[in-house]
Amino acid sequence: MGLIKHSEKLRTFAGIATVASLFLVFDVAFSAMAPARLAFPLDERAPGEFPDGWIHGSKSAMDNDDPAVQVHAYNEHTYILRENKAINYEGAFMYLFFGNDVAMLIDQGSTSSPALFPLREVVDEIIAGWEERNGQENIELIVANSHLHGDHFAAWNQFVDRPNTVMVGLTHEEVMAFWGIDNYPQQIVNFNLGGRELVVTGTPGHEGSELAIYDGWTDLLYTGDMFYRGRLYIEDWEAWAASIQKLRTIADQNPVVHLVNNHIEMTTTPGVDYPVGTTWQPNEPPMQMTLEMLDQAVEASFEIEEPGIYTYDDFLIINQVPWSYTSDL
Ligand SMILES: [Zn+2]
User: What is the pLDDT confidence band of residue 323, given thresholds at 50, 70 and 90?
Assistant: First the structure.
């Protein structure tokens, strides 16, 4: 994988620089040709912004004139994408993180057809624009997933023939091999996107291969489908409880600023969600969540003992309840 090559190259350059200033002339010549390395310092938080509102479907899908994929630059190296709810009611969020020479797309939405949902085209455009602004060429794209549910990898196939692309894969074994996790879910690994450090760990409970990702540059903690403003479908309660407590530990050890995730299903009325399948959500709360909300979930993880539906202001815990019983009909 290019990443390993890349970090070796980095180390080699660092070695050259420290060992012999003889090479200074070479260094100067080299840096005149190559794009400047982007810095992603961990000690100062990279600012970023969420939109005032996301595209949220429409009363009639036929009259929807929003883009198939909303592209929002959280900051210049961090993109958040949302699938149009008129195409699929899941309204799934996807993330694109840039490091030096490497971009990572996390999740690929709920629609496979490139005609309906041209995710590959949109991602290619973002990458082309980013390369131009940053004087880079041919950065590698890693196509990764938060977890292995079909509403988050439907457009995965659009990338399989893309040049200069690493497909992480859609089996538990491929995912863990890519991230270097051999003790799932306990292990916490650092993953380098070329100067941009991610902390990655297993957070099963909603699904048995799910990962949470903390980005040390923006201080965003990505919690996928295991924690978001909506119906938290839990198939394995013990695992989910341990995962949510682990997210709290990660937030204790790192200066997390927002929790970001995959869906919005709540309304702005506390404790009230939109019914399953809703394609128009005019009263959505923000997607990002707070540490106080995480604390509530942690508390719930110690209190809940039985399967059932538990309502909180900002999320519903749907503990081991068959999906068909959870619609609001
Ligand atoms: Zn899921």
Answer: low
